[in-house]
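Input record (one chain):
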Amino acid sequence: MAGAVPVDALEVRAYRIPTDAPEADGTLDWDATTLVVVTASAGGVRGNQVRGMGYAYTDAAAAGVVSGTLAGEVLGENAMDVPRLWDRMRRRVRNMGASGIAASAISAVDTALWDLKAGLIGLPLVDLWGARRERLAIYGSGGFTGYDDARLAEQLGGWVREDGCVRVKMKIGTDRRVEERRMRVARDAIGEAALMIDSNGACTPRRALAMAELAEGFGVDWYEEPVTSDDLDGLAFVRARLHCGIDCAAGEYVFGPHDARRLLEARAVDCLQIDATRALGYTGFLQAAALAEAFAVPISAHTAPALHLPVCLAAPGCRHIEWFHDHVRIEAMLIEGAPVPRDGAIAPNGRPGHGLTFKAKDAERFAV
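The corresponding structure, as predicted from the sequence alone:
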């Protein structure tokens, strides 16, 4: 093909970064986050090397899928044909299972390829896709169930006072008495800001409705994964019975447009969450966003705020980006160009691609 620029290198590394304190939600606890970083390279103008970077918060096993399975579908191929390479990668993982680890591996490669393409052209990604907005609201997210009341209040209140967030989200468990106390602490800390809760699928449908009734008294207007998103009937059951002032949200385990379609067809969500580090990268994110638009359902980006910023500025119907404590900390520490909130929103830095550079030397101490 005339003007083809072959991908001549695809590198991958995994890093395990300890959390700043033990973290937990309604179903899981953890003390570290694994980051898999992919770098794709191609020759640019006058023979200079251009590099694109992508990443996923996933298991270190995804690095093996990139190097052992996906690299052969990308190396030597035209870096400008990202959708074609996306198709090739999806076909290659068919027999290993296209969700989970394989999907996150494709996601990291796809975002690296889009960053590479935009770098070769010399444009910010949002300009390559076409911007719908100049900046996007964030909501503070954390409030882990293992925090004591003082830490909970400090974190949630800090997002409102220091970052200008008008929305914050906390994790909740299944004990009504405990969560009533914690929601009261949260409400006192954030004042008039909107309060969001996330069960991470810990509840049964009826227990979720009981929790929603309790949450309504604290002005909660967003209930995320009240039941596991694998239970589409259960999720739709809860959504249909929530008070009209509370949105039902899910989608962080959407591993591509087909998963998104199933949630939408089940009428299971008022807002579809999409995670580009799981949902097959920027390509999958934009496809899922288009499906949501067809169903008249808004979207929200799940975690990884630095990576999501350009695609959220271009995607239809995007409400906000999750300013997730753990990922914000990692991106500020290891990624040059990570966004900084101003008045509760973030904006691009104007650099080519997604405008992010991974600090490999700083990250080496975390290498797996």
